Amino acid sequence: MMGRKGNLMSVRNDVKVLDATIRDGGLCNNFAFTDDFVKALYKTNVKSGVDYMEFGYRASRVLFDENSFGKWKFCKEEDIRAIVGDNPSDMKIAVMADVGRCDFKTDFIPKSESVIDMVRVACYIHQIPAAIEMVEYFHDLGYETTCNIMAVSQANLNQLEEALSMLGASNVDVIYLVDSYGSLYPENASALAKTYLEAAEKSGKQVGFHAHNNQNLAFANTIETLSYGVSFLDATAQGMGRGAGNCAMELLLGFLKNPKYNLYSLLSFIENYMLPLKEQGVQWGYDLQYMLTGQFNRHPREAISFTAEHRKDYCEFYKSLLDNF
Length: 325
Known about the structure:
The chain is α/β, with parallel strands linked by helices. It has two domains: 16-279, TIM Barrel (Alpha-Beta Barrel); 288-323, no CATH class. The chain is built from 13 helices and eight strands. An eight-stranded parallel β-barrel has the order 1-2-3-4-5-6-7-8, surrounded by five helices. The protein is globular and about 55 Å long. It starts with 15 loop residues before the first strand and ends with a helix. 46% of the residues are buried.
């Protein structure tokens, strides 16, 4: 039986914190962050001791109209370099590539020519073969890689074990447990984490966790999975992310005992950048409609529409979910 690694006072040097504010938060405002915002967040993350900063997606410019999104939907090399230069810091730069939504064979240059360090490949469980093809391609280009299996709360155990076995045989560096629907509780989050960790240990991989906050459990689930050995932890400033958002970076940095992590710069960034963003009307965070889709283990798209329409008829929404359960 896999036990907890360390205790509340332990410093675990295997832990890596990844800031996903621009990527997951970009789903709240169509990636329309100003360069000033992104540069300030980059400097904040460096000062805060964050290990990786995810700048956004490198989405297909064939499938998606560049004029309809901010630049961080596409994360062009020159746009990242305009923020970080040659990135003269210890923090690594990441981007996400979605299976089926990117042109990975034409849009990525070798790592030796790029300021990007890591490519995170996102897929659903039935897309694992395509994800592994991408992982191997990025590995051969010299990048660190992750595979983020989305919506795992709806996958069956046989599928999951097969997927983990296939990833174990690949060159992926980190396998991510993703609570896409914010439907997990600490008990089943930790049970899944143990399944991932047991598979990963056989092949020398690390495991990450990406939480959503539909039931106000993103932080709780993150530190619960961490306690069993998950080492890559995603978080965002003030939990900014699609729908109910993610694990809040300020909670995570305040929890971790490693003195390399520092909260003060992040608090300053929240004051100066996150609060104005909310005042401009950008919406994210826990609300009843997201709670309900989390409880029903459903994609939050209906709750996102409910929010966009400024609805408050929670009882009707609840009944509509029951009707379509």
